Amino acid sequence: MPRHPVSMWPVCLSLLVACGNDGSSSGYYTDSYGPGITGPGGTDGGGTGGTDGAPTTGDPPPETEDEGDFRVPRASGKYVYSASQTTDSVAVIDTANLVIDVVEVGQGPTVVQPVPGQAGDAGSVVVLDQGSHDVAVLRTSEAGATTVSIHPVTPGANNLAVSPGGNFVFVYHDVDGPEQLGAGSDQELSVLDVATGTAYEMTVGAHPREVVFAPDDSTAYVITAAGVNVIPFATLGAIGKPPLLPVVQDPGIDPATLEVQIVAGLGIALARVDGEPWLAVTQLPGGELTVLDLPGVPTDLDVSSSGAFAVLTLPGPGGSRFLEVPLPLGPGEFEEHAVPGEYVGLASVAADGDTMLLYTTVDPFARTEAPAPALPLNDDHAVYASSSSSSTSTTGDDSTASGTGDDSTTGTTTTTTTGDDGPPLPDPRQRITLARRDGAGWDLVTLFVEVPVVSVGIAPDSRNAILVHGADPGADPATAFSYSLFDLTPAFPLLKRQNTEAAPGPVLFTPDGGRAAVLLRDDLAGVRKVDLVDLGNFIVEPLLLGSPPEGAGYVEPTEKIFVSQQHPTGRITFVDPQGDVQTVTGYVLNDSVKD
């Protein structure tokens, strides 16, 4: 049943971002958390862990990937839009001159998303008003005049997704969002037709967590715990329960073990399950499901930004492999590549499709507390061998040792053991492998990174990356955290480690890949700053902030990075390409101060 707009008015209260990536593929993995690495055309960081896993005796331990989602002001055109829940308003900031409009919206505005396709420097966003269960559509002309229209939507929503053409807005409850759903169902969502103001209500699969759009703005794919709902925009008025297509053969699989990637440009879904040696490929919307048997158990599934191929990582203690799967899939088609002597469980593919970073966020070799054997072990041998091989003719059994060391575990006394008397093997989180396409294969370079990697992001131009590290237990506590700048272009790559006073938070890349911003915050230690990174020379300029940073974005027309901060009346700092800094404070109270 469609809903219709209830109000529209012009707003003139004049007082003296970050662009998204409309890629052809997207997806989710249910076990993700930690610092975000974001940016126009950038990549979500892969992994936060630093979680030591038990020694591997069978399947490799699951990796932890990061999706880096946070609520911050958003940019559209030359404007930045910042919502205030306490005053039920949105500040519209002209980044060219810092003139500010404060416009009224519904109750409790939270999520702000830009609407693509605006002319010139004009801007437009949609704002979710969670308190009044509606969506506000804001349109700002190049001259600075803003209009607002309000549209009722499904109650309980906590997220918005805008189609690449800016024509449709999905309003839904994201199971990974910060709010817990009260009475009701998270399976109800609304699709707002921006041009007509009509909202179409429908029911999808259980626990939606992401909406992916076809590049031609014709279809949406809603990823849920039960499968993928396919929603063609041409028939919105006739859809109440869009088709739900399973992405694995067994509907009883625990969705917490499932990773799904949608290749929207090809209309297919790829899925893997923790501990299973196969890849499921589902045609959308037909539903035909093909299972591709693999030579081992993958721990990660990644898709190139062009949708031309997928990558699966198969870690092993004596050496790992990754599979390159050309898309669309042919019968039994994949190419296997060895990573000799390295344990890699995650892949991050650069935008150019010719560069990858291979790494891990777990240490399967860590010593752990295990039950002591009731009887002496007669074959006390190594759990893992340290030998490596460049052979790619494997059968899926990644173990290179003659035994597992776990065949006698019935005692009640605990002791620290790895199944041998030797020293622990090196932590694989302290190594990262750069893979660069070389003809039909890949050239591999592995570097030591000193401190375990917990998250990785590659700049949009595919020339540089930022590696976020965990805390260094042997370092001065005042500078125990760090990140590394990684030049991916030389024959022997350059790594520059940057020590910090706080754990690196969200990371922003500019669309051209020339600059980055790393947010640093520790409220107890009084750390509130942003590191401004020149990716051309790796020079880092720290900028002290007046308040704790919350998020960052980029305004393309004015080429300004902005950092939103936690402040009772609103505070945003803008930095232009020359490093000039301007801050606006107090715009929530219609009393802005510029400095």
Give a description of the structure:
The strands form eleven sheets. Strands 1-17-16-15-14 form a five-stranded antiparallel beta sheet, with no helix packed on it. The protein starts with a strand and ends with a strand. A hairpin with a 4-residue loop joins strand 27 and strand 28 (319-326). It is mainly beta and 595 residues long. It is built from no helices and 48 strands. Helix content is 0%, strand content 44%.
Summarize the structure.
This protein is mostly beta strands. The chain contains no helices and 48 strands.
What does the average pLDDT come to?
Answer: 82
Unreliably modeled segments:
1-24, 28-36, 38-57, 369-419
Kindly, what is the distance between the CA atoms of the first and last residues, rounded to a whole number of angstroms?
50 Å
Q: Tell me the Rg in angstroms.
A: 25 Å
Helix coverage percent of residues?
Answer: under 10%
Question: What is the β-strand count?
Answer: 48
Structural class: mainly beta
